[in-house]
Amino acid sequence: MSLPSFKMRNITIPTPIIQGGMGIGYANFKLAGTVANNGGLGIISSAALDRVVGSRLGRKFKAREACAQEVQDAKELCNGKPIGINIMVATVNQYEDSVLGSMDGGVDVIISGAGLPIKLPAIAETHPRKDEVALVPIVSSARALKILIRKWGKYNRVPDAVVVEGPLAGGHIGWAKKEEALHEKNKLENLVAEVVELADEYNIPVVAAGGIHEYIDIQKYLDLGCVAVQMGTRFLATFESGATQQYKEQLISCKEEDIKLADGIGSPCGLLFRVIKTAPFYQEAINRQRAPRCDKGYVLVNNECDAKTSTNSFCICNGLLSSSLVVTPEKELYTVGARAGELTEIISVEKLMKELTTPPVQVNKIKITQNLSSDSLPM
Hints:
By secondary structure, the protein is of the alpha/beta class. The protein folds into two domains: 237 residues, Alpha-Beta Barrel (TIM Barrel), CATH 3.20.20.70; 77 residues, no CATH class. 36% of the residues lie in helices and 13% in strands. The chain is built from 15 helices and 13 strands. Helix 1 runs parallel beside helix 3, helix 2 crosses helix 3 and helix 6 packs parallel to helix 8. It is globular. The two termini are 39 Å apart.
């Protein structure tokens, strides 16, 4: 069975796969454009794009200009195919500029989470391309979607799709306590069921995210009523992602026991944050070997970053920048999804997309045929 295309607002994506918007610098123009060229929806991460683009092009950029540039470069790479951007609500100082800048650059989809994107339609409304761009919130419950539907109604806007992110996702997840995140009711399939029921009332397409690893997972969520899935970690371990080579090698060598849902000493956002626990930056943080410091100020709560003054949280901006292709003096921090331990190799986006869209039965048939053709027959 071939996987179907899907639609949101004015665009059609040939394959029901959205590449996650991983920051800082991992989901860059190259990764997003290559995913688009292979039939999926490529997503850029807006986090720290001023530094990411500035490092790449050798001059200073402001947030709005950087977002426009990265989108334009992705669109050029994929010959104008649809491109999206992920903009975290928690990046409060750059949120509006990131929305408007990505729209300047010709973005087709804005996905927004790490907080409820209540202001997103109001910001988009001020841009000439307001009717062209799909606005897609990330939620972790039907209750959150219901709030957004009510708030967005003031702007005569309904989400063009919604991403339901479960607790197996990498990086920030939508819970502050492990016992809540790991409760049976918050398994992705349960969250999807309740969100699909509500979304159907408003004709909102649903996208599942968090812990999706292979074809059978994709088909499972399509069968549950989703139009597509969003996948991050699989795309992180590709040649085209903006992660450092050391990061990618850690991805394919880590085991399930190496992956930790960080709390206690964790993200300054107060949300749980999934990492490889042996990452140098994380080890430095939990051993309290790094003095409190935040000199980037991207991720704030009430306009403050706890990492500035407390050793109970680590400065994710510095750690993640060091793990991208941006050169910094900090040690590396590796964020991953819960199923990263199943990765075995770094591959191209083209190979990954072929794997994700090929039913297992067909893969096995190909392998059997190849083995039969290569074996010598007995005399």
